[in-house]
Specification:
Layout: E1 8-12, H1 17-27, E2 34-38, E3 44-48, E4 56-60, H2 66-82, E5 87-92, H3 111-122, E6 126-130, E7 145-148, H4 151-160, E8 166-170, H5 176-183, E9 190-199, E10 202-209, E11 216-224, H6 228-239, E12 244-252, H7 258-263, E13 269-273, E14 285-288, H8 291-302
Parallel strand pairs: 1-4, 4-5, 5-6, 6-7, 8-9, 8-11, 11-12, 12-13, 13-14
Antiparallel strand pairs: 2-3, 9-10
Length: 313
């Protein structure tokens, strides 16, 4: 018996409109219409302006600046479920609260698990995301998780730069596995920036493990928030005799004075994706789009194809 493909409908939350339009254009289907009504006290209510009955509904919303965007996504999921959508996939390019993936001190929440519970309770059939802060977050879900890898976007760009003396760097010990995985694509060595924090977003000291003299250094991380770590790492790397230093970060959270920090840093370039929209442009920031990758993943899910094929660089 031939496979049955349900009609696909794509919808965007307000936090990811620009990316959703690109995904829809790459997929070859216009975005569906959603109206977001707001009450005077700030409460809001999304509603679909077209039928989703029997459809495979793909709801695109990053949970950056997470509270409103997350709540909007939960309400969109609930509305689609109550409107008899056949299959509901939450496309969450940036998964907010992913940094709270374990109890690293007493009496704290595990936010990443709580968000997973909320999404499942709302009614998702599947979640699609990119470069989780910790890959183990996939285990917080009891529905299929498509964890896309941004290296398939970054690696071709880095290769196009033609850096002759390339070396990969991790801005901290925790990112060493990510940096080593990335380095395999270039057969490159890895150096590590060993940092000690006073508290969140505040660095006490940093040192470099490895030799960067005369090298073109590329720092690898999943999230750039205040840019303090990467800026300090870039300055230290140049002090140690590097030829140039760039940073590759999937999710440009860029809070506080991050833009000023980047522009005043020793970074030649910061390369990010569009999982989170930039608040403003910067000459030092280059944005690579994830739209085509997400569009291919949507097609493969709907047509029962392989997702692992999308991980090939």
């Amino acid at each position: 018996m031939p496979l049955q493909f349900n009609p696909v409908k794509l919808f965007a939350g307000t936090g990811s409109k620009a990316l959703a339009h690109k995904i829809a254009a790459s997929y070859g289907k216009p975005l569906g219409n959603v109206t977001l009504s707001r009450f005077s006290d700030g409460e809001f209510q999304p509603s679909y302006d077209e039928t989703v009955r029997g459809c495979d509904a793909f709801l695109i919303q990053s949970t950056c600046q997470p509270n409103d965007n997350l709540m909007e996504l939960l309400l969109m999921i609930d509305a689609a479920k109550r409107a008899s959508a056949h299959y509901i996939t939450a496309i969450v390019p940036y998964y907010g609260y992913s940094r709270q993936d374990r109890k690293d001190k007493p009496r704290v929440a595990i936010g990443a698990k709580l968000v997973a519970n909320l999404l499942q309770a709302a009614g998702i059939s599947r979640i699609m995301t990119m470069d989780l802060h910790a890959a183990q977050i996939q285990a917080f879900f009891d529905v299929p998780v498509d964890h896309l890898d941004a290296s398939v976007i970054f690696v071709p760009y880095i290769k196009s730069l033609g850096l002759s003396d390339l070396i990969i760097a991790s801005p901290d010990m925790g990112g060493s596995y990510r940096a080593r995985t990335f380095a395999k694509f270039f057969n490159a060595e890895v150096v590590i920036c060993d940092k000690r924090r006073k508290r969140a977003n505040e660095i006490e000291s940093m040192s470099i493990i490895g030799d960067v003299t005369g090298m073109d250094v590329v720092l690898i991380d999943d999230i750039i928030d205040t840019a303090g770590t990467l800026s300090k790492a870039a300055g230290l790397i140049m002090e140690k005799g590097a030829k140039s230093v760039r940073a590759v970060c999937t999710h440009p959270v860029l809070s506080g004075k991050a833009y000023e920090t980047i522009e005043n840093s020793m970074l030649t370039e910061l390369i990010v994706t569009d999982t989170i929209p930039l608040k403003r442009e910067s000459e030092k920031i280059r944005v690579l789009s994830t739209a085509e990758l997400f569009a291919k993943a949507i097609a493969n899910v709907n047509e029962h194809g392989s997702i692992s094929d999308l991980f090939k660089v």
